Amino acid sequence: MTNLQRLHAGRCSAPARLALAAGCALLGGCSVLQRGFLNAQGPVAADERHLFALVVAVMLFVIGPVLLLAPVFAWHYRLSNKHHAFRPSWNFSWPLEAFIWIPPTLIVVGLAFPLWRSARALDPYTPVHFGGSPLEVQAVAFDWKWLFIYPESGVAAVNELAIPIGRPVHVTLTSATVMQSLFIPQLAGQIYAMGGMATQLNLAADRTGVFVGENTQFNGQGFPFDEFPVAALSATDFERWVARLRASGTVLDGAGVARLEAKSVATKPVYFAATPPGLFQQILASVRADAAQDRSMR
Amino acid sequence: MSTGEVRHVGLNLGATDAIAHRKAERAVFGFWVFLMSDAVLFALLFATYGSMLGATAGGPTAAAEFKLGSALFETLILLASSFTFGMASIAMKYRKAGESLAPLLVWLGVTLALGMTFLGMELHDFVGMFQAGAYPSRSGFLSAFFALVPLHGLHVFGGSLWVLVMMVQLASLGADAQVKINILKLGLFWHFLDIVWIAIFSVVYLQGLIR
Amino acid sequence: MNDALRYALFGKLAAQSLPFVRAWERPNLSEVIAAFAAALVLIAAAALFVLITARGKWRYLWEEWFTSLDPKRIAIMYVIVALVMLCRALIEGVLMRAQQAVAVNSAGFLSPDHFAQLFSTHGSIMVFFMAMPFIAGLLNYVVPLQIGARDVAFPLLNAVSFWLTAGAAALMMGSLVIGRFSTGGWSGYPPYTELAFSPGVGPDYWIWAVTLGSIGSTLTGLNFIVTIFKMRAPGMHMMRMPLFCWTALCTAILMIFAMPALTVATALLALDRYLGYHFFTNDLGGNMMNYANLFWLFGHPEVYILILPAFGVYSEVVSTFSSKALYGYASLAVATSAIAVLSFTVWVHHFFTMGQSSNINGAFGIATMAIGIPTGVKIYDWIWTMFRGEVRFTVPMLYSLAFMVTFVFGGFSGIILAMPPLDFQVHNTVFLVAHFHNMLIPGVLYGLLAGYHYWFPKAFGFCLNERWGRIAFGCWVAGFYVTFMPLYVLGLSGMVRRAQEVFDPAFRPWLSVSLCGALILLFALCSLGVQLWVSVRERAQNRVFVGDPWDGRSLEWSVSAPPPAYVFAVIPEVHDRDAFYESKRRHDARRRPARFEDIELPRNSAVGVTIGLSAAAAAFGLVWHIWWLASVGVLLVWAAVIARSFARNVHRVVPAAEVARTEERWLAAAAASPPITRPLETTSLNRGLAERSS
After folding, report:
1. What is the distance between the alpha carbons of residues C565 and C544, in angstroms, rounded to a whole number?
2. What pLDDT score does C563 carry?
3. pLDDT digits over C513-569, tens only?
4. What is the pLDDT of residues A132-179, one digit of tens each?
5. Are C285 and B37 a contacting pair at CB < 8 A?
């Protein structure tokens, strides 16, 4: 049992916290939202939260009139109320039409700009602009666990992802089985991992902590257990973690991969001191089982 | 409403059979709608085929397996069968009550024969491909080929069966309004299949041999 | 008997296929529940069989219902199928909520496999066997009446559509009794649903049930396009049609263009599973992304197929119960058409996370937002219809008001989902589940229930009980909010969907609240049942034979309730929009026709039943690899089609004298009935004759 299981208390930025407090006062409990992107722990999730706040604000403004007018009209113009005009044939008005069509169109046009910009900026393939060179991680989705390979240092871990804070992390993903989806809500959005193909996810953490990582795409009996801790560590702690893995002695060989391919849940993380070079590409090719060339997403 | 008025797209029975002409409008329009949905089906298979052109998985490719001569001959047969069906349609439209059904039956029979020839040749091609190792479970590309082209073949088979049934109905029930309307619909179906084949010939065979 | 012979006769069927045997071998709670469900199906089927035989009703059912080509009869059968399937799928939903509320750091009472089957059947049934048949039922009953036609364009095709759907529904119920259902969800994504990962019969049940249903729907779409384009009464231009017919037309167009995509997706998956093709496999050139594209090319227009008829219902209901012409008719027609077209441009938003470029995601995100514009226009048009009207809070109107207020939250969460970066955070979480239930329950279900309540008196000649209707309404609305609002919060917290067990204790209170909501929804369903029972029991006091209980505006209210088989003694001449309302204003309603003519109607036919049952048998054979059964089924279908094409004596004639008698009886009743004012319309004083207010 490592000290990485310590759960870090979430910290929200001030404006988001204000909005959240108001909502939570109604909902009666904020602690559950700590687990998600509203409690962002990295720049990507923080930008997503910012976009969320913008969209919520605009949409409250959009649905407000409907929530107001529908009950008010229904009540005021009810049959039993004699104090209103009754115009049974009135059914059109150009100014009203303008009001009905134009503002919603303008709002959609207005929202199109942040949508386009953020779709670009927060795309999983967009590198995180942070200090330092990205840490490369290769993730392979199995049933029902994840293998994380660190190609630079050669170590690998099952169901535990450790990353250094303040440094971008570039994850390349594939699946050894069915379509799955890597999701670490407090750090970034999710991306599918698919057999025979490689996808990418860029993320970073800006403070230490232990976060939840999970698979969101149903893949069978063990699906609920397809979760793992993500530890954001200081640079020195991260080096110590890598060193500890190297010292664990186990090498991830063919037999080890075969064991991973068996359908099982990883109740505890498993560590590997070394992996054969090109293991990720090997798994990719063997799933695809043909001589065609590499089919990365783009 | 004058009987000379065009009630639906395609060959109209007009002044030659007023009752059938009136009843045909709804039936033929409905059949066009069906053809549109069938066209969407084929379009999606074409799109799937297009996206899987490269998915040969190290197995047989288009250039290696497609026989252009055979495909060209099949195209000519199918085009000819559309022509013969057209002749049948004209024979049906201008046949006066009491006249012999023979011309109509002969043209339909020739169409049927051409259709069966087409199918026979296509099956022969497929068997040849299987023997050369190009079977659908070999690769994604071959799967896409063996969904699109046999689906067309299945449609031609259905159409041929329909031609046979219409010939039987002409012989037993005569050319009443319902039979004529069904032949109008069959004509649309047959020509539609010809158009789909032209697309297959171009997109599948010609493209496959150019790449 | 040796193995080869057993396989040839029975395919993959074995004792293990029965849930009773499985529960016997492994008696845990999950297996017992499955066995219990199977037993329920068998007992209910047997009880129904015994009841019908004891009452000697087989001939009646065969002649009056099963072989009927009357769209009014077919409509009622569709709605019955939908309501039965609603019961099953809602109970499945409650079971899932219960499991999730209980299974926080504990295994709960449902095994992972059972839970996965539940979410798969729940979704598949609600979409394909509850909503689609219900909609088909409303279309079948209302559209011909509203356009002044006696029937649809192709009555036999109509029956075939119904029986294909019923056969597919029977296959779904069969999967409870024999075998297992798919665990791949209602969308059936490969490669999980490929043989390599799902070797059992489950995905095959899903494939064939959905394929049969989708063929039925495509044919329904075809039928209604031709009906609406070619069979409108003289004078009924497109811009004089009731709005429900506009939405019906757009729905039908969506059906014929979108269902083929589903047919292709499931057919290609079937080729993979049965013949070893490589469309969506991991290996040898398969590409699972094609499936996602094909399925959602169908799937997105599908949700508009579901919602547009509901929008049509709201147009009718809001206008009628505000005693006002619909505001912005032309806008509504344009908006409906725009929604139909735009629905084909947004499908990628169902898989923003699949790794395509940000340009593609951005373009589809913008298109997704764009489709909110015509939808918003429609909501405003209904709100402004109430303006300076005289609003009556009958049950259909209550559903419409609840829809207006609640559906916009779904639109809210929809815009959030339209933003790709936000979708990356909530995709496949219960936020998504909350969003689409927010669209489907207040959007589609309230519309269907409003339509059910609104047109029930027309179909059966007596009104539904208003008090139980309000109770059901209150429970549907409260139940929706209590069940699904917590899921929005949980989704924002990163709780994934389809989880048979969860491990964060913070989820528990929210899941418990959600379970309470599900129980309220169950009570709502029961209230509907009670309402029906009470209404039937009190029908004698609530007859509205004259046919216009709500002071209706369109032609369906201009005939008796229930209408005669031929509906209109004389096809009406239409001069206005809101044709019946205008004719009432001109004192031209319910006139005795100058003369009565013989009326030609289709004869009954067994072809529909034959095709539906044969197709279902063939599907069952395909599922279990019983090849002889599959072949026989397919051959029977084609034999029926070919045999029918030889039939010539397919009409029957209602003599003019009989038409005259029926009409005279109705007109006499209208003359003798006291007219009813609007405040009293929900009482038993209502005979179906509206007092002229202005």
Report:
1. 17
2. 98
3. 999 999 999 999 999 999 999 999 999 999 999 999 999 999 999 999 999 999 999
4. 899 999 999 999 999 999 999 999 999 999 999 999 999 999 999 999
5. no
Judge whether C294 is closer than 8 Å to chain B, CB to CB.
Answer: yes
Q: Is C496 on the interface with B (CB under 8 A)?
A: no
Residues of B in contact with C281 (CB under 8 A): 140
On whether the pTM is more than 0.90, the answer is yes
Q: pLDDT at position C693, please? A: 54
Locate the domains of chain A by residue range: 40-121, 135-288
* Spatial contact of A222 and C113, defined as CB atoms under 8 Å apart: no
**Per the CB < 8 Å rule, is B140 touching C286?**
yes
CATH class of the region B14-210? mainly alpha
Q: Is the pLDDT of residue C182 over 80?
A: yes
Classify residue C55 by burial, with Cβ atoms within 10 Å: 0-12, 13-18, 19+.
exposed
Which chain A residue lies closest to B57 (C-alpha atoms)?
A290
Q: What are phi and psi of A19, to 5 degrees?
A: -60, -40
Query: Above 50 in pLDDT, residue C362?
Result: yes
Q: Which residue has the tokens 């209604």?
A: C224
pLDDT at residue number B18? 83
Q: Is A191 on the interface with C (CB under 8 A)?
A: yes
What are the beta bridge partners of residue A230? A161, A211
Distance, C-alpha C146 to centroid of its chain: 20
Domains of chain C: 1-56 (no CATH), 57-103+113-605+650-680 (1.20.210.10)
Q: What is the CA radius of gyration of chain A?
A: 25
Chain C residues lying within 8 Å of A118, measured CB to CB:
419-421
pLDDT at A9 over 50: no
Residue C53 has pLDDT above 80, yes or no: yes
Write the DSSP symbol of residue A160: -
At A3, is the pLDDT very low, low, confident or very high (cuts 50, 70, 90)?
A: very low
Fold assignment, A135-288:
Immunoglobulin-like (2.60.40)
Residue A169's SS3 state is strand
Chain B: partners with 3+ C-beta pairs within 8 Å: A, C
Interface of B with A in 129-188 (CB under 8 A): 139
Q: Is the peptide bond before C638 cis (omega within 30 degrees of 0)?
A: no
- Minimal Cβ distance to C288: which of A35, A179, A227: A179
ipTM, two decimals: 0.96
Distance from CA of C1 to the nearest CA of B (A): 33
Q: Which pLDDT belongs to residue B50?
A: 96
Domain boundaries, given as residue ranges, for chain B: 14-210
- Cβ of C279 within 8 Å of Cβ of B147? The answer is yes
Mutate which of A197, A286, A290, A293 to test chain B, going by most B C-beta atoms within 10 A?
Answer: A290
